[in-house]
Amino acid sequence: MDKDNPLVLLVEDNDGHAQLVALGMRDSGIDHELIRVSDGTQALEFLHKKGKYESSQQPRPGLILLDLRLPKMDGLEVLKEVKSDELLKDIPVVVLTTSEAEKDIAKAYEFHANSYLVKPMHFDELSSMLQETGFYWLACNKRAY
Amino acid sequence: MNKVMLLVDDDDSLSKFIKICVEESGALMEVKQVTSVDKAMDYLQNKGEFADKSRNPDPYVMLLDLGLPKTSGIDFLKRLKNKKEYAGMPVVILTAMESTENIRNAYCNYANSCLIKPFGFEKTKELMKSVTTYWGRYNRLPDRAD
Question: Cβ of B78 under 8 Å from any chain A Cβ?
């Protein structure tokens, strides 16, 4: 199991959802640091260490949790950019969205999402899903670095 | 019908062990093993011994060893991820070759996830419980024909 203290980048514009995701991931019991950005442009700036992140000392994320409906640049565009960038494509990207639309699911996999999760409506179900997600990606999955 | 995990690994003893661990974890997932890339393609295309689609449905997740005979796991991964029809099938690398280079290469060829082969019953059971719960219950796939 791979349990060193990774960074999780959460790309989520909804404050309430962001708090719930952070809580659920914390309850996975696996140590990690979570950084949240609220739109697609900020996500790419963080990953490329540009703009306000130019002097950031944060390591590259071990996991990206990516909402689809985002201001400025939507999640599918962010996904496409990450997975076509030789320096970023080895970071697992898990789409975490309320969209169950078949076109979004198909497009996300076409753009090489590592996984696609639909946020359940009820808090308990969301919490259970995030605990499993945290355990799988932070403790079981082997990262490239 | 149980969801299928397709295990592509030529190590029969490990595969039997994984099957037992999945059964003991209580997961509603059936492990089907093939020992080569050719057999895996037969399974995915419902050819030969896998012609009956009702008994050999599309897998919810594929666990793929890297060190396979003839065609390597990484070459098979590349082949799958270059075909649109398999884009929505999660391919999880299960390997003992845990060098950074191997793992990075797998991700750069769009492996969905990478796992290191565990040692011992309890660790294998814990890993398989997480794998079957995550990929069988929570991960969403595109619409399927079956």
Answer: no
What digits encode the pLDDT tens for the residues B64-101?
A: 999 898 889 999 999 999 998 999 999 999 998 878 99
B98 touches chain A (CB under 8 A): yes
Say whether B81 and A142 touch across the interface (CB within 8 A).
no
Return the closest-CA partner of residue A46 out of A9, A91, A85: A9
* CATH class of this structure's domain B3-138: alpha beta
Domain extent for A45 = 7-140
pLDDT band at A2 (very low <50, low <70, confident <90, very high): very low
Q: Residue type at A106?
A: A
Measure Cα distances from B54 to A23, B36, B57, B92, B130 in Å: 41, 22, 6, 24, 26
Chain A residues with CB under 8 Å of B87 CB are 106, 109-110, 112
Question: Does the CB of B86 have a partner CB in chain A at under 8 Å?
Answer: no
Q: Which of A106, A118, A141 sits opposite B88 (nearest CB)?
A: A106
Chain B residues with beta carbon closer than 8 angstroms to that of A115: 90, 112-113, 134, 139
pLDDT at residue B52 is higher than 50: yes
For A78, residues 6+ apart whose C-beta sits below 8 A from its C-beta are A11, A40, A43, A44, A66, A70
Say which CATH number the domain at A102 has. Answer: 3.40.50.2300
| Percentage of chain A modeled with pLDDT above 90 | 88
Q: What's the confidence (pLDDT) of residue B146?
A: 54
ipTM score assigned to the predicted complex = 0.94
For residue A84, the one-letter residue type is S
Backbone phi, psi, residue B92, to 5°? -105, 120
